[in-house]
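Pilot study result, target chain (147 residues):
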Amino acid sequence: MAPIGEKHEKVKSTIGLLLETYMRELGTRFYKRGGFTLEEPGYASGTPDESYSIGTEKEVPDIVIEVIVTSGTINRKELYKPKRIPEIWFWQSNLIKIFNLNATGEYEEVERSRFFPDLEPVLLLEYIAMPDQYDAVVKFQQAIRNR
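Predicted structure:
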């Protein structure tokens, strides 16, 4: 079993590569924002593992991704509320949970991304779990093309 830090980085990188492959295959414009600190005066800040603006480059990303390898006590969703991040993805214990910001300013769990309604999270999990990252991306790309 890989050390916690190594596992975190591998999962984070693999999710990013898969999501970017998906967007490229569909011709979706995206801007990788990476993991920078999202701050709002008077609130705790959040630093996602990855983030993306979809369609156009924006000051606030549309999607942030958090990879959780160890359990924590911080409600990570609360860190992104002040910036009104539209969507948060959490990977933890080989599960992906997606949360959308609703009209009342609260995050609610949804089955699929509002940005990628045809992408089933379970499909991503299959490729995230593959031991070889390169093979995972190639096979995922083939699966997308064969749909």
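One observation from the pilot: Residues 11 and 128 are 7 Å apart (CA to CA). A full batch analysis is planned for the follow-on phase.
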